[in-house]
Amino acid sequence: MTGMTSSARPLLNRRLAEFGTTIFAEMSALALKTGSINLGQGFPDTDGPEEIREAAVRALRDGRGNQYPPGPGVPELRTAIAAHQERRYGLSYDPDAEVLVTAGATEAIAAALLALVEPGDEVIAFEPYYDSYAACIAMAGGTRVPVTLRPHEGSFRLDLDELRAAVTDRTRLLLINTPHNPTGTVLTREELTAIAELAVERDLLVITDEVYEHLVFDTAEHIPLATFPGMRGRTVSIGSAGKTFSFTGWKVGWVTGTPDLVTAVRSAKQFLTYVASGPFQYAVAEALSLPDSYFDAFRADMLAKRDVLAAGLTEAGFEVFRPAGTYFVTTDIRPLGETDGFAFCRALPERAGVVAIPNAVFYDHREAGAPFVRFAFCKRVGVLEEAVGRLKSLAG
Q1: Is the pLDDT of residue 5 over 60?
Q2: With bands split at pLDDT 50, 70 and 90, how would you rate the model's confidence at 260?
């Protein structure tokens, strides 16, 4: 009986019991097994700027960050983050008291929720939502309250009345993601104004996940919620280097907010990773000060890739929701005679040699997400063209 547990209680904490292995792990394994093109997980297949990679090498060689960096992050990076917020959005933050570096945006989300949510507090999040949101709310003992973005005239939209109705006396905070993964929706100035007014009126805290801030297309613009009246003092803003500079493995994210908010988040963060990504922090400090031409070229490159994939998916018979931001395209599989995204995605590698993600995993209301499937376009154009060629067999 060695190694057996005597307790009849399940090993996994009941707060996490519903989560299991992520769909990304399952689909990535399926991609390997079948030799399929993986358009499931959102990571690029090429590295970011060579000079930033070299900056990391230089930091390693110079012995900068090889030992524990300061708890809040290296001063150079905190200064660069503050300068970026000021230059881009006119938001002024004190690098010493109002900026915290984290192990990617995922840790920033976890630390913010663990710090700010008490058991029984309600947290409103837009569904479909990034999968870590639900797990982190659960770990904090909070209750998640989904407000569903619904298809409307070619994109997924927020119903502001539904959002207002979801707020109760137990609501502690709103968890906002714009540009929104997986739908590609970018909240408008009008929508953000209404959210800000609601937060002020009901005295709510807000966590904003803005990791795709530099990936907005067409006429969309990214406007941080913290810039709206009454919001700077109640908003924890989260950013990340991974999505903007295509170094997702470096795990460098950050939080900006008032000293009180940042201190609260840091109190939780110090017991998660303590610190991380030492040499990479110096490289990201350099990346944030790249000229506008870098950000413009990055966006133009992703826009071209979006259009290659969106056109190919349309030709293959999907209904395509052309994203206004992020590097994901959501599709509706019903025109292909399919209704179950899980079954479709599990069969797709064998049918067409391509891996995608069923959006239903991002919903509490699984039926609302059932016919939607997400594809990532942060891949080389040749890879996207090959994937599109394979998917055309579905139109048969």
Answers
A1: no
A2: very high
Phi and psi at residue 152, in whole multiples of 5°?
-155, 115
- Which DSSP category does 70 fall into? P
Confidence of residue 6 (pLDDT cuts 50, 70, 90): low
Helix axes 259-269, 104-116, angle to 10 degrees: 110
For residue 376, give the H/E element and its range.
strand 372-376
Mean pLDDT of 99-114: 98
pLDDT band with cut points at 50, 70 and 90 for residue 3: low
DSSP 248: G
pLDDT, tens only, 283-295: 999 999 999 999 9
Which H or E run contains 105?
A: helix 104-116
Contact status, residue 144 vs residue 173, Cβ threshold 8 Å = no
What does pTM read for this prediction?
Answer: 0.96
Residues 6+ apart with CB under 8 A from 351: 393, 394
The C-alpha atoms of residue 387 and residue 39 are separated, in whole angstroms, by: 8
What is the rounded CA–CA span in Å between residue 147 and residue 225? 18
Beta bridge partners of 143: 122
CA atoms of 184 and 345, how far apart (whole Å):
20
Dihedral of alpha carbons 17, 110, 371, 32, sign: negative
Q: Are 339 and 350 in contact (CB under 8 A)?
A: no
Q: How far apart are CA 286 and CA 50, in angstroms?
A: 12
pLDDT score for 366: 93
**Mean pLDDT within 191-220:** 98
Strand partners, 255: 100, 238
Residues 6+ apart with CB under 8 A from 383: 37, 45
Distance between CA atoms of residues 147 and 124, nearest Å: 7
